[in-house]
Amino acid sequence: MYFVDNNLEKDIQNVIAHLKNQGFVYQNSEIYGGVVNTWDYGPLAVAMLNQIKSFWINEFIRKEKNFLIDSKIIMNRSVWKASGHLDNFSDYLIENKNNNKRYRADHILKDLYPEMEIEKYSLEQLEQIIKEKVKKYDGIETNWGNIRPFNLMFKTQMGAIDNAASETFLRPETAQGIFVNFKNLSRSSRAKLPFGIGQIGKSFRNEITPRDFIFRTREFEQMELEFFCEEKDSDYFYRYWIKKAKEFVLFLGLKENNIRLREHSKEELSHYSKGTLDIEYLFPFGWGELLGIANRGSFDLEQHMKFSNQSLEYLKEDGSKIIPFAIEPSIGLDRLLFALLIDAYEIEKLENDEERIILKLNKKIAPYELAILPLTKKQANEAKEIYNNLLMHTNLRVTYDESGSIGKRYRRQDAIGTPYCITVDFDSPINNTITIRNRDTMKQETISINEIENYFRNI
Ligand code: ATP
């Protein structure tokens, strides 16, 4: 559902302003007026993304004994013919001739009829409904043109000669880089079914209406796994990866109440898909797809066999040959980051009628795990020594701040989600102790300086 409630709209604008202020996101090319709904990530978001990616690698690749690869963004153009993207990867676009703006037909209808099952209607029917029912949209009278498909792949050109043969595309998903390397990987790793191949990387889609902050952008990052197995096991693994994906987002700290699982209806399924389930998150504008798990059958490998004339069959131990099925958990990093940030954002009223903004981020993914704060500048040398020691001798994500009152510095750390602050005070050099303040409870405890590393290892 895409309708934006006014109050929610205001809230989300506050959150975005907060994230910009603090250094999570910047407007892309801001000094030139920006690019529509395009965001750059500042150091705090990058720190979170790195954590998320390394947890994904641990959970989806390492612990599962799967393989991680890194294929290219620009591939042989035949890849996209075989995968179906050249012919079918389109959204339906309709133009309001009164303001010359183009919209996604399905978005217009979802705004007005959230429960409508758009997949059940033909293009002509959708066009008719919009023309008949939507007389005003986006604050303006309408004069609709015809609905037409619009291919979402970004065209580019490879090499110095600009002709039809040099035309190619930026990848709209990372998955195809995995399928076309299936043979290479099985050979070089002597991998036995079932096994998975994953990759993390940028994908590009020329979205008609990028919107909703980092939910729908034209450049985004995906973490995709293709888990190859025999057909008879595919339903088991489909369920397995659904469970694993759900556990993963909960492990990162999303609140269970804010997610739901939605299985696609028959009408919604791509023609090759044997089953697709989205994990949705309750974004400020309503439920939206956070990630998807699909049983893609043997469709992709078969297509690439057909178009490349190469065998992508798998030789079983009994000598028979099969084309494996692929189960695909596909996670968008940007949407996951958005969900984690919005889930963690809270404004808390304090006793003295003050307010504090906190990002209650899970320690695993917070940009910093702890901040070192000298109580006054007098303790700066002592505090810096602790800071440098932790940087040099531990992997802790640690920051340092000495400017402003201690109260202000606590607020600053609350606002970026740092779960612990270490205060170095007058007693520190005398007793060899520091105070640890907990972000959520604001409670403080005193421990020995030598205990810091151990303390953080155990919480
Ligand atoms: P939607 O229906 O919202 O356009 P989709 O079904 O086309 O999404 P998939 O092709 O399944 O998305 O892509 C897998 C994941 O990649 C999505 O679950 C989402 O997290 C992410 N993703 C897809 N398109 C975008 C985008 N334009 N911006 C940010 N993330 C995206």
UniProtKB/TrEMBL annotation:
InterPro entries: aa-tRNA-synt_IIb, aa-tRNA-synth_II, aa-tRNA-synth_II/BPL/LPL, Anticodon-bd, Anticodon-bd_dom_sf, Gly-tRNA_synthase/POLG2, GlyRS-like_core, tRNA-synt_gly. One of its GO terms (cellular component) is cytoplasm. It comes from Metamycoplasma auris 15026. Its EC number is 6.1.1.14. CDD domains: GlyRS-like_core (cd00774). This is glycine--tRNA ligase. Keywords: Aminoacyl-tRNA synthetase, ATP-binding, Cytoplasm, Ligase, Nucleotide-binding, Protein biosynthesis. Belongs to the class-II aminoacyl-tRNA synthetase family. Pfam families: HGTP_anticodon (PF03129), tRNA-synt_2b (PF00587). Residues 114-367 form the Aminoacyl-transfer RNA synthetases class-II family profile domain. One of its GO terms (biological process) is glycyl-tRNA aminoacylation. It comes from the Bacteria. GO terms for molecular function: ATP binding; glycine-tRNA ligase activity.
